[in-house]
Amino acid sequence: MTTPRTVLITGCSSGIGLDAARGLKARGWCVFATCRQEADCARLRGEGLESFVLDYADETSIAAAVDEVKSRTGGRLDALYNNGAFACPGATEDLPRAALREIFEVNLFGYHDLNRRVIPLMRAQGHGRIINCSSVLGLVGMKWRGAYVATKFALEGLTDVLRIEMQGTGIEVILIEPGPIPTRIRQNSIPHFEKWIDWENSARAEEYRTLLGRLYNERTRPDLFELPCSAVTAKLIHALESPRPRPRYYVTKATHLMGTARRILPTRVLDWLIAKG
Length: 277
Description:
Layout: E1 6-9, H1 15-26, E2 30-33, H2 38-46, H3 59-73, E3 79-82, H4 97-125, E4 128-133, H5 146-165, E5 171-178, H6 185-196, H7 205-216, H8 229-241, E6 248-251, H9 253-264, H10 267-276
Parallel strand pairs: 1-2, 1-3, 3-4, 4-5, 5-6
């Protein structure tokens, strides 16, 4: 009997991570679908997924999750999909230092910590795949998203270096860069906005009134170029199962357009284009 391939996925309570966990389980993978909250893990276990807590903000939680994987597989892990992240919307000039520290702890340092803990397992077995979920906002910056953009730009650089350094080890390091995907990231960003952004005393208070509508109101139509979470899962499957995976996978036309624009347009023209959008 063939032993199923194993993958650890973060941020599986909803959205991209949940779709990936379900999709890979259906393809025969042994999926460790982790979430920050035990209640979400219990719900996933009710679906038949293997699920336990992993919180990027907590080093002890990351170490415990890797130990749990080791105990369930005998020390083997074929792949890691770093997916969990959050946003803190607001003008860059209004972001306190502590707000940036908090988001980097999760969106960058947590990824790095988890990667470092699984690399020895993959080195020992002579193969493995580490897939980091970035974003179109890891390619270009957009207004009101400075904190999130900063983490994704940093993730792009750190991943590129790790990919180069892992050459010859059998460990493939890959980026997935989604554009607009219907997830809960906007709703989940509200507590961070309320915690850190003193918008009423901002020089941009009037501009924030427009932002508040987009942040709090229910969406009435899809975003331009939006694709479902399954579009990300399709690229993830190729990254995991192809004999020769690509270093990066763009998802949605928005990412393709912005990736091309960044390469060919002068900076001022790109700034103008993004500001108009």
